[in-house]
Amino acid sequence: MAHDFPLFGDFSDNSAAGPDEHTREAVLAAVEARLLSTFGEPSGRAGVTFLGADRIEVLRFGPDAEGLVRYATLGMAAAPMNDPSAMLADPVRGPRVELVLTVRGGRDEVLRTLATFAATPQVEGLIVAPGASLDLGQPLWPGAPFTSVLTAEPGGLVPDLALAAPADPVRFLPLLPMTPNEAAFKRVQGAAALEERWLKHGTDLRDPERKGVALG
Fold this sequence. Notes:
Blueprint: H1 21-39, E1 44-48, E2 56-61, E3 68-74, E4 96-104, H2 111-124, E5 133-135, E6 148-151, E7 170-178, H3 180-189, H4 191-200
Parallel strand pairs: 4-7
Antiparallel strand pairs: 1-2, 2-3, 3-4, 5-6, 6-7
Helix pairs in contact: 3-4
């Protein structure tokens, strides 16, 4: 059973339900089942509702034997992401994702940051895809050396979740925290170049206190 834990609660600004509650519930039930089959029972969960957006939950898993804590969003995939310039939004077709952050030792203060990132498709019309940057403009949690994240390729941590046709599958995107200098490098050189630097230097991207990688 999941239990409430410090800093995780309901910080709702608006509790309005979505217009298609049944479909939303079915998709999110399947998403949660996939997360539980991958990580086991959550050690905590919390919800945030932003004005003009549906509720986003964050589930905490772990720590595991290596001290790793994983935070996964639940709610982002309830509806497909659509091009904001489209005349009509397709309620079924379109990419669906959830976000997963792994932190050694855990940082529960990251709750609202993850919920903010997960709400961006609803609030800003942003389509979140692998290789994108999500910038908070401030530390991801108090005292963090990171202000943004890189969305990595899915499939390695949580397998894609197939939905009934014609809906797209739900993909679970790992989040890789970036320092401001790393984010600036990524904007100029691209995600692949930054990931190559991390790999070259053996960077532990799960370390909540790591230094920025050498970029020269």
